[in-house]
Amino acid sequence: MSPATVADPVAIEEVFARVPLLAHLSGRQRTRLAELATTRLYEQGSIIVRQGDTSMALYVVLSGHARIDRESEAGKSVKVDEVTHGGFFGELGLIEDLPRAATVTAEEPTECALLAKWDFQNELRTDPDIALALLPVLGARIRELDDQLVRLHHS
Is residue 3 domain-resident? Predict the structure, then answer.
């Protein structure tokens, strides 16, 4: 993993605009969040986040490909999803203090923009309309994850 760097906020804002979680925000709001983001490059096979670790940031994939796995109670690793350019994970970490629910591994060199929890929460204090814009997106994401769990349980 490379050290965190400050990336081009314009390029990050363009990707943020295509991320369902952030698409409902105004351009001004997305630009401000992009200005707060840092980027990291993960080598193939690198663990980006590990299930059970403290959740501290939202990750948006700028390039590359990553696999999302969740360990079952029996200790079996189950592939939950994959993310590529514009994909995201860790969004619940922005709003709750629970451990990471899954492990994310870079399947190839993968660059991510990271929005730290404390930066996001400071923006919410400054601009509460951000929270209102995110509520429908988070609700849809929860329903999607519930549907995935049902499919996994019946497969």
Answer: no
